[in-house]
Amino acid sequence: MFEVPLLTPVSPGSAPEGGEVTNIQSGWRLGLRSFTENKLAVMGVGILLFFVLFCWAGPLVYHGDVTVANIVQSNSPPVQGHPLGTDQDGFDVLGQMMVGGQASLEIGFLAAVIATVVGTLWGAIAGLAGGLIDGIMMRIVDVILSIPLLFVVLIVGAKWGSSVVSLALIIGIFSWLVPSRLVRGEVLTLRVRDFVAAARAAGARQSRLVLRHLIPNALSVVVVNITFQVADAILLVAALGFLGFGLNYPTFDWGDQLSSGTSYLLDGYWWQIYPVGLCIVLTVMAMNLIGDALRDALDVRLRRR
Amino acid sequence: MATYLIRRAATSVIILFGISVLAFWMLHVIGGPPGRAVLGLRASQASVNAWDKANGFDRPVPFQYLTYIGQLLRGNLGQSYKLNESVDAVLAQHAPISAYLSGLGLFFAIAIAFPLGIYQAVKRNTLGDNLATTAAFITYSMPVFLLGLLLIQIFAITLPIFPVGAPAAVSQNSSLMGAIADPRAMVLPVATLTMVSVANYSRFMRSSALDALAQDYIKAARAKGLPERLVLLRHLVRNACLPMVTLIGLSIPLLLAGNLITENVFNYPGLGIMFINALQNEDYPVLLAYTLMGGVLTVIGNYVADIALTVADPRIRLA
After folding, report:
1. What is chain A's alpha carbon radius of gyration, rounded to the nearest angstrom?
2. What φ, ψ does residue A180 adopt, rounded to 5°?
3. Chain A / chain B CB contacts < 8 angstroms
4. Stretch A208-217: mean pLDDT, rounded?
């Protein structure tokens, strides 16, 4: 150990005695550096950026018609003009993958944001309140967590989840439980810390404690979890689409596309199944890679599921 | 220990109560009064209202809940108006077929994931470990149905070793014996479920074994000259398996979800197919009975896992 003279005034720009002293970096900046040094994480970000460009910029330059059916060209294998062939209605598969991906990604991110916001507030309030309120709030979490998410989302989604926003809302509303548990755990350890006691002594109200002190400090857990939430939500929407209870036509996602392609599995129309399947796997893998790297970078000991 | 188990049992009962409230609420809000479902689309609104009134579905919600929970405690899960059968009978018909598939899947998952995780921890950062980690990671990021489709593509279409769907005898008669009589047709569905669970469990088994490997009792066992094989078998395996008991208890909802999707990929007529058929028919009593059953299984599974852990781990038992 060596002593750091904390109060030595150093004029800006001049090197202090004893050589170069690097800036003390914040935890977030250290985390960012360790994240960018992780090759798999950079790859994950790259894949994700690719799909964002593919889905939103792709339709601007590639004209795969997704509104007018062309039965004459149905189920065509890859040919010139249709690099990934066409589906049963003669739509261009590549063009559909771009549009379908928009819905998948939008639902994934929207659902994850909803789940994270609800879960963070719920967990923070429960952890801070303690006692009976905490007990009741956490038993509610236990109850919803006991019921298979897929079942509930299928039942509610089949009734009301026909658009991107409604489906994202339904998934978000039933998947905030894990973040709420994580945040509550963080808050329970944070709330006995001195800076919280200091804020309380200074007369801060509960709302200020939660929003200014507890949530920002519990944020690293939340940020790591949100990437996994996106991955799970994308898988869930795909499963809904595959089972035939996803979005209502003409809106569709990758799962819907895979579902209609599956009818031709035995006919060998591979272009209707595997390219879009690869899109789902790569996107989910990218989110998982980013999440794993963030967890290592922010050094959060938490277990997924 | 007894007080701990009793307290956990009390919490479980509270959670079961919560699950019943949630299931009833969903039945009530999403399904609505069953008059329309019973009498059909052509019945007049007046006769639908009269039916609902005659059967007590116009009473205040808390009273309806009391009737519901009263029936539930007698083991009556309600009536499927679409199938004109009791929900109990519908579940009883499909449950053994699903249990057979899920049971085999879980058995193979444990039989593969536990040794695999320990192998990975012992040989960490070797080629074998990295390959297993990568394979688990890809499987983990893959939708269950895509995995099933890939297996069908490879092992039923490209190389016609196994049949594409479920045993024909099961699909037609929905009988468990049909499934048992045709083990070849079970291979791909069971393999799908197994791979999903192995990807999940082996990650945890690896980290759990890594934690155990760093403990002093492993060093002590090695220092006293115990052969490495015995160090692993006697000291590592037992300790590394403990956290897995809890994980398996917790993974029941995922197991049921995987089962639902796998059954629909392979057209295997268990509870998963029943669920999707009920969803298409808007047969809410069946849907919510299975959802309730899933919740109850999860709560029981967690409780059993806690008991098993208490029995297996002297640190908890004697604390």
Report:
1. 24
2. -65, -40
3. 126
4. 80
Chain A residues close to B291, C-beta within 8 Å: 147-148, 151-152, 155
Distance from A203 to chain B by nearest Cα, in Å?
Answer: 37
Q: B135 and chain A: CB distance < 8 Å anywhere?
A: no
Per-residue pLDDT, B319: 56
Residue of B18, B143, B275 with shortest CB distance to A140: B18
Confirm if A94 and A62 have CB atoms less than 8 A apart. Answer: yes
How confident is the model at residue B179, as a pLDDT? 72
* A204 alpha carbon, distance to own chain's centre: 33
Within-domain flag for B7: yes
CB B256 within 8 A of CB B268: no
A210 or B210, higher pLDDT: B210
DSSP-derived secondary structure letter, A71: G
A157: tokens are 């989604």
Chain A residues inside the 8 Å CB shell of B26: 152, 155-156
Q: Which of B40, B73, B106 is the last residue of a domain?
A: B73
| Alpha carbons A251 and B25: distance in angstroms, whole number | 30
Nearest-Cα residue of chain B relative to residue A266: B157
Contacts of A285 in chain B (CB under 8 A): 137-138, 141
Q: Are residues B192 and B271 in the same domain?
A: yes
Residue A301 has pLDDT above 70, yes or no: no
B259 and B126 part of one domain: yes
Q: B264 lies in which domain range?
A: 87-208+243-312
Smallest CA–CA separation between B312 and chain A, in Å? 23
- Cβ of B141 within 8 Å of Cβ of A231? The answer is yes
A243 CB within 8 Å of a chain B CB: yes
Reply yes or no on whether the pLDDT at A220 is more than 60.
Answer: yes
Contact residues on chain A for B18, CB-CB shorter than 8 A: 139-140, 142-143
What is the chain B residue with the closest CA to A159?
Answer: B30
* Residue of chain A whose alpha carbon sits nearest to that of B139: A281
Taking an 8 Å cut-off on Cβ atoms, the answer to whether A305 and B254 are in contact is: yes
Q: Give yes or no for residue A30 having a pLDDT over 80.
A: no
Contacts of B57 (CB under 8 A, 6+ apart): B33, B34, B35, B64
| pLDDT score of A279 | 93
Structure token digits, residue B296: 């109850």
Number of domains making up chain A: 1
Segment A160-188 mean pLDDT = 89
Please indicate, yes or no, if residue A6 is contained in any of the structural domains. Answer: no
Which two tokens mark A152? 């509930």
Residue B112, pLDDT score: 93
For residues B66 and B97, membership in a common domain is answered with no
What does the DSSP 8-state code read for residue A195? H
pLDDT of the residue at A300: 45
CATH number at A292 reads: 1.10.3720.10
Co-location of B67 and B116 in the same domain? no
